[in-house]
Specification:
Mean pLDDT of chain A: 86
Number of strands of chain A: 21
CATH superfamily of chain B: MetI-like
Oligomer: heterodimer
Number of helices of chain A: 10
CATH topology of the largest domain in chain A: Rossmann fold
Number of domains of chain A: 2
Number of helices of chain B: 12
Strand content of chain A: 25-35%
CATH superfamily of the largest domain in chain A: P-loop containing nucleotide triphosphate hydrolases
CATH class of the largest domain in chain A: Alpha Beta
Low-confidence stretches of chain A: 348-366
Shape of chain A: globular
CATH topology of chain B: MetI-like fold
Helix content of chain A: 25-40%
Number of strands of chain B: 0
Radius of gyration of chain A: 24 Å
Shape of chain B: globular
Chain lengths: ~375, ~270
Amino acid sequence: MLEVEGIYLEVGDFRLGEADLEVGEGEYFVLLGPSGSGKSLFLEVLAGLRRPDRGRISWKGEDVTRLPPEERGFSLLYQDYALFPHMTVEENIAYGPRAGGLSRADARRAARRAADLAGASHLLRRMPGTLSGGEKQRVALARALAPRPALVLLDEPLSALDWGRRRELRRELRDLHGATGTTFLHVTHDPEEALYLADRIGVMLRGRLRGAGRAEEIFRNPPDPEVGAFLGMRNLLPAAFLREGYCLVGEKEVAAASAAPGLTHVWIKPEDVLLSLEAFPSSARNQFEGRVADWEPAGPLLAVKVDLGGFSLAALVTRRSFEELGIGRGRRVFCTFKSSAVVTVGGAGGEARKARGGKGLPGEIS
Amino acid sequence: MKERGPGPSAFHLLFTVLGSILVLFVLAPLGGMFLATSLGELGRAAADEAVTAALVLSLSAGLAATLVTTLFGVPLAWILARKEFRGKSLLSALVDLPMVVPHTAAGIALLSVFGRETWAGRILGSLGLGFTGTFLGITAAMAFVSLPFLVNAAREGFSAVPERLEKAARSLGASPWRVFRTVSLPLAKRSILAGMIMMWGRGISEFGAVVIIAYHPMTATVLIAERFNDYGLAYARSAAVLLLLAAVALFLLLRVLSGKEVPGGGGRARG
């Protein structure tokens, strides 16, 4: 297990920490945060490339805070891949095993194994300068895995790729993690990526780690509204407790199964909001009339923003139903969602929900 | 000239003329010197043992200065490129200092540390190493005035290597020494080599500092000055042309080495 206790570091005006974190062996942990939140710095501290001002890092109970990077057994994979431009792909991948003391032949075998795993076998003789983004990514992954690290640190490994490649390699990252059983600590600014990959998620904002937990838990029940806002959660709305089962959102009464005293926000996931032209009888307890204000692409879907008077709500629709509904600005529509789809933030709601076993992964949106 | 505008403007014309005058200023004396020297004169100079000895001394002392400086200058360049510390700008100014020190003054300065009557000079002397009027002294004079070329070129070479490459290598299990040997040095090699050649060329051409420390044995520059003083222009010219040819050869070597920027390094593709 990786244990981070009270890591603190000042770099110029920026302060990292204090950060506490535990990552279990074999876990896929994603550290989520906007750019400039200190995630990359945190990774470099873990890798041993920067010494923290204070705090402790241990791996399997052994204090590694003062160990140089080469003795930690943590591979770091950078966003720009940092492939050695003067070496072939094979020499790149064999670099770690060679540095670890393997003979040339053994290092080459280790490199070929890692290249197989990462789908880079066909690239071995190429020079890095001739590779595409996706190919570089595979090579960088193979290189990071070749020395059989205890922990792989991935710094925004997918953000230099286009959308299609990103999805493809995202899946392979997950498979690779499964196949190697190695612990992955992956840093990203993309909540969707985190949701897709992570066993557990930690959120970092302005140098501070703001809670960590099971992926769906963090999304369902963000530790605080700022985290919620960052997670790109559309429809995170200020709310007040009204009475058992109900809360007040923008002066409208909203049925919320988990409403409890002290709640400060509700999150109505856009994919849970149904859009229709007519009111219709439904078991869903919330149905509001409003007018279309705007829309924007959200992956392959569209997020339609509806003004309900007092607050607005985004609903995800396919492009096809967008056309069928004949949506235009000012169009009168109805928004319908279940009371159980209203996630409450703050108060006892989250706890109550957990106790009832409220689960359900928001799922792969795209 | 890539611009295909509506004919050359007056502005463009003026700058071309001004620039050309400067180029002529470089080209005319050098070309003139070549043309004024007959092949026979050149052959006689090349056969003159004093001339060839002076040329060999200049080239070898310059090379020795370069090699020794590389040993110390490359680590210094790496530190200047990679580390942040207090007094760093002072240190890099210090490295540049020999470029502005008048070269005769540099010779005097070296003599006042390593001359016969100084303690450093006596230590050298007890080791059987003379400074004044020796190969060692000439080498030191050349090194002093030309080391900024090497250190600055190497520093730029190291700066151009992305630090992330070094960091990634460390995280893959390589020691700092191994990272330097396998990543930083190979990637900065070309710049370092260019710096070495520039330094060598600059060392060969040194006169001021050398003449203070050693009139004899005679380097090519000292020989040229002496012949000019004693016998006049025509006599000095053939030796000057030979020295110039040696310098130009080095300069061409530099251009070839630094011009071969093949991305990915060409022939290494076969594993």
